[in-house]
Amino acid sequence: MYTDNHNHTKHFSSDARQSYTELIDACKALHMHGVAVTEHYEGDYPHDIGAPQIFDIDRFFEESEKWIEYAGSLPLLRGIELGYQKHLCGFYDELVAKYPFDCVILSNHLYMGKDPYFFRDGYREDMVTVYTRYIVEMAEMVEGCNNFDIVGHYDYINRYGPYEHPQMKYSQCPEAFDRFLTAIIAKGKSLEINTRSVDKMRKKGLNDTLPDPDILSRYYELGGRFVSLGSDSHGSDTLCIHFPEVAKYLSEFGFTENSYYIGRKRYGEPLIV
Question: pTM value?
Answer without folding.
Answer: 0.98
